[in-house]
Please model this.
Amino acid sequence: MQPIGKIARVAEDIYQLKLPVPLPLRFVSVYLISGGEGWTLVDTGYDYPPTYEVWKSGASALGIDLENDVARILVTHFHPDHIGGSRWLQERTGAPVYLLEPEIENARRVWGEGSGAQPFVEALKRHGMPPEIAREAAAGMRSGLDLPELMLPLRAGEKLDLGGLAPRIIPAPGHADHQFMLHDEARGILFAADQVLLEITPNIGLWPESESRPLARYLESLNSLRGLDADLVLPGHGPVFHDLAGRAAEISRHHDERLGEMQAVLDNGAKAPYAVSQMAFRGTLTLFQRCFALAETLAHLDHLELQGRAVRRAGEPVTYQSRQLDVHAQPGL
Model:
C-alpha cells in the first residue's frame, strides 16, 4: 500500500501523490501528469505546511523542478483539501490555475476576503444546531483561504491536450456544485475527483452556498457514468479502482437506504434536521463531522421533499415531517 506522503506511478505518465490533511480522511490524492509542454497537476491539497513539504519531496522523487517544469494546475473543486494549496503552488511554479468557470466565482464567494462566517452560523442554527456549537463550527470551517490571484476558466465538454493524454472535462455536481472530472476515452482513464470513491461515499451536502437539489443532481450524474468507458478510476480519496459502473450502483443504493432511514425517523414525528442527523449518523463524531452529517441530512431531507415523501416547515428551527403524517398536505400534490 502506498503510504501517505509518497508518490507512485498509477499509469503511463501518471503519478499519484498522497498529501496529508488535518481531517479524518487523513489524505487527499493529487495527480501529476507528464507530457506536452510540461507537467500538469490535478488538485493541490490542503493549505498547511505538511502539504508543501510533501509536494517538494514528491516532485523531487520524479525529478520535477517545481519552478520550471509545471505547465498548469487543474483544481477539480473549491473544497479546501483540493484548492487549499493552489496559491502556494502557483506562486512557486508560475503556472496558471484552472477551475470550471462558475467554480471560480463560488470559491471567491466562500473563501475570499469579506466572506465571513456569520451566514454559516445562521444556517446551522436555522436547521437546529445549538448556537454555541454553530459558532465554534463556523470558526473552524469558514475561516477563509488564500486563493490564487489568477484563476482561469475551464468549460464543460472541453478537451485538453496534455501530451499523451487528451481528457474531456465532465461536470460532476452534487459533492460540489461545479466539480469536474477528467475522462480520457482513448486510454479508459477517469480522474474522478470526489464524485466516485471506493471505500467511502462522497459527502452530498446542502450547504448555505449550495445550489438546489444537490442529491438529485448527484444521482443523475452517477447514472450517467454507468456507460462511461473507464477501466481505471483515479479518485480524490481512497484506493484506485476499476469497476466504475458497479461502484456507481453501490453508491446509488446507499443513498436509497439513507433516504429510507430518514423517512423512518420522520414517520415518528416532525424534527429539525440537526435532530435527524443525530439519529441517522450515530457514534462519536467530531464537530467537523457533525457539520458534514447535518449538510448530508439536509440534502436527503430535501430529496424526500422533492419525491413527495416529506414536507418542510419554515420556522426557527426549520422542521421536516413525513408527508403521510402532514394533515395539511393535499393528496396528489
User: Anything to note?
Assistant: Residues 70 and 326 are 58 Å apart (CA to CA). The longest strand covers residues 14-20.
